[in-house]
Amino acid sequence: MNKPIAAIILAAGKGTRMNSELPKVVHETCGSPMVCWVAQACLEAGASRVIVVVGHMQELVREAMERIDPGDATIEFAIQDKQRGTGHAVRCAQPLLEGFDGNIVVLCGDGPLIRAETVGQLVDEHEKTDAAATLATATVDDPSGYGRIVRDDAGAFVGIVEEKNATTAQAAISEINPSYYCFGASMLWEGLSKVSRNELTGEYYLTDVPSLLLQSGERVGALAAVPAEDALSVNTPEHLAQTDRILRARLAASTTGANA
Question: Partner of 4 for a Cys bridge, out of 47, 88, 102, 206, CB 3.0 to 4.6 A?
Fold first, then answer.
């Protein structure tokens, strides 16, 4: 039997490049706040708990989430008062998941193109391989701005290298980290406890956890499961318009298919 699934959605950021005072994740695409698309994908993939990490103007994010009917699942909120990185954001959700023994999916609230099928595939691979952590990756034509997935000669996952730290050879890697993660609950907390503050930014990064788990002798997998189109994160109004076009095209295609 599959273990229960909890989802942590990172939604505390301001999104300064959106040219708006609103929290980034409440901007609408194809009729819904982008964070709602992410939460809905998690619910459809079987998550029994969705924890949204909120911060900047959190009341607006909470209001946005009221649009979702979670059914038998629950939607909860964790507060990140200060922006101290993705690792710190996930740690803010830890008290709510005390005693939870299952798989934890961690996603970003600014990635509305995520599909429930991809989340399900990620969790299935994680369980099948009995991994401590599993990432879903994408291969894109232009990897600029993304962390690169580094593998060894046998194709096994070695780590995530952020673009600013990449060598010339690593920067040329087209397999990127779109921030789709699945962790065993105890492995996530163990890995986060070992994350050090980044000397350059002063933040704690979730991307450090897979490598730290590998160094501890744990199994970490990287599944090439995210279509290139789905990897787009919204950082600008142009990105938002692009996701709107893609989501409307998907809805039109699904309606056409249903009527065929």
Answer: 102
